[in-house]
Design brief:
By secondary structure, the protein is mostly helical. The chain has a single domain, classed as Helicase, Ruva Protein, domain 3 (Orthogonal Bundle), CATH 1.10.8. The protein is built from six helices and no strands. The protein is globular.
């Protein structure tokens, strides 16, 4: 049996993927990016209310950062977004899918008041 220190530092190799699998993953990633970009444009133009997205986010928003989404809202810059996140005790690196129910509810209530 190898010493403990050796087994802890072995790199874990990513599973091998076929060209088809890699191309499908790339296509999915591109689709998510383009849908998020369109959503941000809709937020910026006022066609999409932020609180609806926070309450019932589409699947492709699960890994998007809350910070980035709030920045797309008109009249919200870095300072205001950081203040809001701090008030709701949400890390700037938190994802939409990673929000707890408390954080989601507080954020929606705060955004509706503004």
């Amino acid at each position: 049996m190898p010493p403990v220190s050796e087994s802890l530092h072995k790199p874990v190799a990513a599973p091998e993927r076929s060209l088809l699998q890699r191309m499908e993953a790339l296509q999915r990633a591109n689709n998510v990016r383009s849908r998020r970009a369109q959503l941000k444009r809709d937020l910026k133009a006022g066609r999409q209310p932020i609180h609806e997205l926070l309450l019932e986010p589409p699947e492709y928003l699960g890994t998007a950062k809350v910070f980035d989404l709030l920045l797309a809202v008109p009249k919200y810059g870095r300072v205001k977004v950081n203040k809001i996140l701090s008030q709701c005790r949400i890390s700037p690196s938190k994802t939409i899918g990673g929000l707890s129910q408390r954080q989601r509810t507080e954020l929606v209530e705060l955004m509706r008041r503004r």
